[in-house]
């Protein structure tokens, strides 16, 4: 019995340490929180930010990502426009309203985008804003764009959380 007790305590201690080492989520900056709206659905995005070499600099072209719910189920996709398309075919298109620097170095900015429906009734049709938060990666390359590579594309991996917002009333 003495041999198993220290092992059980060690396993418990490791489990507690693992939980304690998970950093808390950074707060969403106030300029990315619209008045009169509430979070409706949070989806995780995993994909790429696509950049094109133009006149010796990388220029953002479009995102390309799959969206999943917190339960791991497919929620849709995110692509040029920017658009978010639910698995039921409903779509929204966004335009940037506000931005904030990402807390992580090398991560694309956090954003607030206003949205409007862009095709059919369905799951995403009532969404009025989208927050892009918890970004990792996705920043344009620092170099490698020159006269020899003008017109070429590069795909930079990124992850983010998209919080879809709806009116409070």
Structure in words:
- The protein is mainly β and 169 residues long.
- It has one domain.
- It has one helix spanning 4-21; strands at 37-54, 57-69, 74-79, 83-86, 91-100, 110-117, 129-137, 153-167.
- The protein has an eight-stranded antiparallel barrel.
- A hairpin with a 3-residue loop joins strand 3 and strand 4 (83-86).
- The chain starts with a helix and ends with a strand.
- 27% of the residues are buried.
- Mean pLDDT is 89; it is low at 1-20.
Radius of gyration: 20 Å
Give the total of beta strands: 8
Order of helices and strands: HEEEEEEEE
Net shape: globular
Report, as a whole number of angstroms, the end-to-end distance. 60 Å
Helix content: 10-25%
Q: How many separate domains make up the residues?
A: 1
SSE class: mainly beta
Average pLDDT for all residues: 89
List the helices and strands and how they pair.
Layout: H1 4-21, E1 37-54, E2 57-69, E3 74-79, E4 83-86, E5 91-100, E6 110-117, E7 129-137, E8 153-167
Antiparallel strand pairs: 1-2, 1-8, 2-3, 3-4, 4-5, 5-6, 6-7, 7-8
Please give a handful of descriptors for the protein shown:
about 170 residues; mainly beta; 8-stranded antiparallel barrel; 1 helix; about 10% helix; disordered N terminus
Characterize this entry briefly:
It is built from 1 helix and 8 strands. The chain is mainly beta.
